[in-house]
Amino acid sequence: MSATRRRAPGGRDESRPHEPGTPATPVIPEATVARLPVYLRALTALADAGTTTCSSEELATAAGVNSAKLRKDLSYLGSYGTRGVGYDVEYLRYQIAREIGVTQDWPVVIVGIGNLGHALANFSGFRSRGFRIVALLDAAPERQQEEVAGLRVRGFDEVDALVAEHQVAIGVIATPAAAAQAVCDRLVTAGVTSILNFAPTVLAVPEGVDVRKVDLSIELQILAYHEQRKAHAAPIPGEGLDRVEESA
Amino acid sequence: MSATRRRAPGGRDESRPHEPGTPATPVIPEATVARLPVYLRALTALADAGTTTCSSEELATAAGVNSAKLRKDLSYLGSYGTRGVGYDVEYLRYQIAREIGVTQDWPVVIVGIGNLGHALANFSGFRSRGFRIVALLDAAPERQQEEVAGLRVRGFDEVDALVAEHQVAIGVIATPAAAAQAVCDRLVTAGVTSILNFAPTVLAVPEGVDVRKVDLSIELQILAYHEQRKAHAAPIPGEGLDRVEESA
DNA sequence: AGCTGTGAACGCATTCACAGCC
DNA sequence: GGCTGTGAATGCGTTCACAGCT
């Protein structure tokens, strides 16, 4: 049983206990945090293309945002550009990676090795982006012993040992919705404090545990809503048989 | 290129309860639109559990939001509740489904039948949530002829015919990043106007085309950022490598 | 001159708190 | 009494526009 990871006691009020030696925490807005990985990806692409310097305008285009927003975002990290010139690609890339915390790899466990779990386990982009899959877990005995992406699938009951052994802070849930909350609870008990949830259900977690969700159906439904509006906004006149044809 | 704008699948005409004098366009805020599918899911779960009526507080809990936000969101759709009582689960569920546009199924194509494409194709939640996969496309000849989730994988060059035949408005890109923009362009040319992009790259699309992205690495990096901050008062994962601290 | 960094203005989203109705 | 629906207040995020540096 691992009780190794402890968070700072007390809530997170706006009054921050300021230890001497610890520099003031910059307080980066959540919306900016969500874009930093996009900037990181764009900078990596620029670096791969041999670009050594870029303006906020160029980087913004590569990241799909406007330059004012980009500069504002970067201003929360510090002054890493040069006025009249722009940004050094490699330098800025490192600064953002450091801010996000992906200058070293984070160990990650994936729970639920079905179709999606397989796909996630085989996703090669992990390693280069700051993560390392250290264990694949599944409750079904027939999936255990199987080898996926070079890792043997473990029984879910090994979760405590594996999380403790590899100091895992981040878990990915790729189980069916019905199992997700129980899996989540076990992960949290084992010491995981950040969860990426692919199961289409709301997870309840204790204070201090972060959950992010990825839900394919929700994304499609948002698209469908807008699509429906486009259809209303520009209806084509005189359509008698707009039935969708069935095949397959 | 096909310049025809298509209507919602099934072709049933819009039928809002339409009081005289009410503007035809309700204008639902984007943040609300993004939550409607979550409410829909929660209502379906409640209905499956046999609940026929619920308060805003109950539904909000099931959806993982607070009740004030829920009521505000629902107020954009209309007055579907009863003061002093709450909401009829089935009635509200239908109203939200209608607003989103998933009372009939939307035909969808998936491009890129690698690990992720397989997982998406096999995801069973599609049909019940308003979508129907009508085609799987891949450029690699060795993947074609393969049968996935009951559909034969087609060559990407069939995209125009398939999109036209099935009146496809929504496409899913599950290709490597390098191929994504070209695939996107072809989809748009074929007539697709909404794209769900799983490739880790920014897509450029013409006006009128919607893109939503799902990026696993970005989600993990956002978690890593917060995890790193928690770690200020606790051991760092990856056991005591150099602390990542601000050095002014 | 050129481009970054940033206060200020603006607009959108959330929360509050209570009026309105059952 | 209880719960919804909603203006008002608050907070957050984006955009503007320009000061400040190279």
Any key phrases for this structure?
homodimer, 248 residues, alpha/beta, Arc Repressor Mutant, subunit A, Rossmann fold, 2 domains, three-stranded antiparallel β-sheet, disordered N terminus, DNA-binding
Secondary-structure topology with pairs:
The structure is a homodimer of 248-residue chains.
Chain A: H1 30-48, E1 53-54, H2 56-63, H3 67-75, E2 81-82, E3 86-88, H4 89-100, E4 106-111, H5 115-122, H6 125-128, E5 131-138, E6 147-148, E7 151-155, H7 159-166, E8 170-173, H8 177-190, E9 194-197, E10 210-213, H9 216-233
Parallel strand pairs in A: 4-5, 4-8, 5-7, 8-9, 9-10
Antiparallel strand pairs in A: 1-3, 2-3, 6-7
Helix pairs in contact in A: 1-2, 1-4, 2-3, 7-8
Chain A binds a DNA duplex (22 and 22 nucleotides) through residues 29-32, 55-57, 66, 68-69, 71-72, 74-75, 79, 81-87.
Describe the protein's architecture and organization.
Two copies of one chain form a homodimer. Chain A is 40% helix and 16% strand. The first copy, chain A, has nine helices and ten strands. In chain A, helix 1 crosses helix 2, helix 1 packs antiparallel against helix 4 and helix 2 (56-63) packs across helix 3 (67-75). In chain A, 38% of the residues are buried. Chain A is globular. In chain A, strand 8 (170-173), helix 8 and strand 9 (194-197) form a beta-alpha-beta unit. Chain A has two domains: 30-100, Winged helix-like DNA-binding domain superfamily/Winged helix DNA-binding domain (Arc Repressor Mutant, subunit A), CATH 1.10.10.10; 106-219, 3-Layer(aba) Sandwich (Rossmann fold), CATH 3.40.50. With 248 residues, chain A is an alpha/beta fold. Residues 1-22 and 237-248 of chain A have low confidence and may be disordered. In chain A, the strands form two sheets. Chain A has a seven-stranded mixed beta sheet with strand order 6-7-5-4-8-9-10. At the A-B interface, helix 1, helix 4, strand 4, helix 5 and strand 9 of A face helix 1, strand 4, helix 5, strand 9 and helix 9 of B. Chain A binds a DNA duplex (22 and 22 nucleotides) through helix 1, helix 3 and strand 2.
